[in-house]
Amino acid sequence: MSRLTATAPCTVHAAMVEATGEVVAQALLARRVAWLAALARGLSAYLIAARWNAADLDALGSGVGLDGRVLPSKGWMALRRLGWGVSSPSGVRVCDRVVRCAQEQAARLLRLALHRRRLVAAIVATWPQERSARTGAEWEALRKVLPDGVSAADIRNRTRQIRAYRDQHEVFPADLTDLEEPPNVAAQVVLAAADRQLLTLERTGSRSARLRVRLPLVEFPACGRDWAWHVLPVALPPTVPLEAALCAPTVRVAKGRVRVDLPFKIPVGFAPATGHRVGCGFDWGLNGLLVGVVGELTDGRVISDGRPFAYDASGVSAKLHRLRAEREHLSAKHRHLEKLLAGITVADPRFAALSAACQVLGVEHERLCARIRNLNKALTWSAARWAVDQAAASGATVIYLEDLATLEARGRRGRANSRLSGQVRGRIIEAIRHLAAKHAIAVVTVPARGTSRYCPRCGDGTSVLKHCPAPDRLGELGWRWACCPACGLSCDRDWAAAERIVSRGLLGQKATRTHRSTGARTIATIVEGNVARARRTRKPTRAARRARRTRTDLHPRPAARDRAKNRPTPKRPTRTSANPRNNSMTSSRVPDRRTVPAPSPASGGQRPAGHAPKPGRHQPYRTGHVRNSHHRTGFHHAKATPVLTFTEHGSSPGKATPVRVT
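The structure assignment produced for this chain is given below.
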């Protein structure tokens, strides 16, 4: 049994001074928390600026202190063992626990800089010969020297940063300190480094907690009387279970309100890396954000139930594209105004109007960026929750996803991937890992090469699919539909890719490797095999179901037929001209409409139920269930895919092709 750590954002609306019982309103509480955050931020920024050089980063990266002992995991203790202290400004009294919080935040930022430093050094050491792209050998050499867990997006962004520096200075950067300025420090207080002399935290109910923290009463406290204990009631969100263990939070001020980022730990079961029988495979689709299938491993073969489920985020994606276009438009106008301001002086009468317009555009640009970030975050957790719910409802014990490090696309799909990159695929994978751990479901990534190109039915990895716009337009070039010339498979392109993903995962699960530091699981070996579909049991017809309900079945069940063998079977009435009484056959179904006009109310008596057919009026009709009849503009229009288990399917026909390791 392990523990999973999560963070719940909470808002504090008021507080109380413990010594006097004074109620502190939200505005005053936010001001006092901002004073404490400013003190910690100033100490952290001073410490980072003083140690932003190659020698100090080498000392921190060595992992050994001045006394020869290994540096501890806690950041503030590591900095103190290196002798990197910091003192409060003159005339300001700050307790040692606030200095600890500042050192902890500085240590976290410096350790993140060490990761970027190793990444920059690896890219500079394996710089490609051609400016356009790296060759296969250059990519292999770069992967060998890169730190673990580096994505293709990180490599691309750092390469562009280094190229811009070389174009400007005509030399490569010698270190990260030449390439970047000291990182900015957020205005927050990391209370994880404090003890009971600065804060206490206890749970008071199922949805409430009590946080005691010492806050300054003035902006620049000069003595101990300028500090006081404040009691902050924290309302816990429903995501924090009763068995969760609360940890020291991080306090900050956002939009005039006090925010408490409260981490908590919950016990979760262990998800094994191998030994899975039922798994879900998800593809980053072109027709939808996520498309998945369920596969079952039986006697060395993979069987799918033949029912895909897709997460349709077209409404949210359309809104994101609109917001991004608006953001680019505002950014272009803002840059244009900045160029105009650079060309005139302050004494120019146009400077004031242009400066005000430029400031308004900057605020609006920041507001749009915040909306895009919030919408991306909502889309991330919504898609992750949907994927985990589908896997849990299907009885799957593992989820297989495409490895983003091996996902390289070109052409039309490359443009689609660039659009989907704003939907933070990496964040979706992290969210799926986090939510799947609560259900003891393993998350494994498989190689993405060839999942949409080859046929999942043939299974040999050589039958290339033909992509077309639709199943009735096989002669045209497209990308939505896939058909196999060898076996005749015709299905959605993303569906076929999801089947190959779950097949690679279940057949190659013995090659699963777990990263030592991050815990991420991946399969690097491609094991090919076909995916067979299970036949569903045929459901009884509508007439048979109605006859069973009404007990008017002319062909009774076998047990009833055995008991009634001595009775003659009644003959079905037929329509003959000699027997006109049998010409009008009755039906147990009530007609949907009246077949004759209803009598008028003036003729006396009560009018029967139903409407009389009116001549000249078009009769309504429906050809089936109408889906997506309204415009989808958000998450509230999302529809869940019904889940069928493998017990509702019969045995699958045919034989599996031999498994081949490539």
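Interim note for the steering committee: The first helix runs from residue 26 to 50. Residues 32-188 form one domain.
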